[in-house]
Amino acid sequence: MIVSSDSQNGVTIVSISGRADGESAPDLEDEFSSMIRDGSVRMLLDCSDMSYISSAGMRVFLLAAKRCQRAGGFLTIASLQPSCRSIIEMGGFNMLIDCYDSRDEALAANA
Question: What is the CATH classification number for the domain harbouring 86?
Answer without folding.
Answer: 3.30.750.24
